Amino acid sequence: MKPILNVVAGIVFNAHGEILLSSRPEGKAYAGYWEFAGGKIEAGETHLAALKREFFEELGVQIHDASAWLSPCYEYEHAIVNLHFYLVQAGQWAGEIQAKEGQNFTWRKPNQVADLPILPANYEIIQALCDLNFN
Ligand SMILES: Nc1nc2c([nH]c(=O)n2[C@H]2C[C@H](O)[C@@H](COP(=O)(O)OP(=O)(O)OP(=O)(O)O)O2)c(=O)[nH]1
Fold first, then answer.
1. What is the best residue among 11, 20, 40 to mutate for testing ligand 1's pocket, by most ligand atoms within 8 Å of CB?
2. Cα(69) to centroid of ligand 1, in Å?
3. Of the residues 23, 54, 71, 102, which has the fewest C-beta atoms closer than 10 A?
4. What is the structure's pLDDT at 91?
5. How large is the ipTM?
6. SS3 9
7. Residue 115 and residue 122: Cα distance in Å, rounded?
8. Nearest to 52 by CA among 35, 33, 39, 43
9. What is the Å distance from ligand 1's center to 129 Cα?
10. Does the CB atom of residue 9 touch ligand 1 within 6 A?
């Protein structure tokens, strides 16, 4: 049976309305694909605590606050993943971004990611972000 993963990911905005994407490090499933920073929620951890921990571990960024957004479930070859996406507005985080795990990162408008390989579960998230910008 496939493992079930509970994952939190943060959609961080800057003051220009761009979102932060990072590439998945070598050695992980879908290495080199672009995702929102985040990771598995540990036992007993709240979503916000997991988000804060993952952002600090991966990017050296401090998340002060975030709002729960979409929570899709996606079945991959390697696992069934319950994803919890949080929106993090420009005033809700601080710090200089450092790629602590050797990953790349980029800031993009949600409608400017067509050239990047992104995780399959994230297509609907990017689409929903594009729709947000037009409503
Ligand atoms: N972080 C993140 N994971 C995502 C996104 N979209 C998506 O489908 N996933 C999936 C890919 C993985 O199967 C799972 C995250 O697990 P992971 O193995 O990267 O988590 P982790 O950073 O805690 O990794 P680990 O080193 O502790 O194993 O969620 C996303 O935008 N961000």
1. 40
2. 17
3. 102
4. 97
5. 0.94
6. strand
7. 14
8. 39
9. 19
10. yes
Please state which CATH class domain 4-134 belongs to: alpha beta
Residue with CA at minimum distance from ligand 1 atom 21: 39
- Is 99's C-beta closer than 6 angstroms to any atom of ligand 1? no
6's tokens: 């509970």
Which residue has the least CA distance to atom 5 on ligand 1? 35
Which residues, in sequence order, are CB contacts of 62 under 8 Å at separation 6+?
52, 55, 56, 93, 94, 95
Chain centre distance of CA 45? 17
* Paired tokens of 120: 């399959």
Q: Give CA separation, 75 vs 5, 49, 62, in Å.
A: 10, 25, 30
Q: Is the CB of 119 under 6 A from ligand 1?
A: yes
Give the residue extent of every domain in the chain. Answer: 4-134
Note the pTM of the prediction, 2 decimals. Answer: 0.95
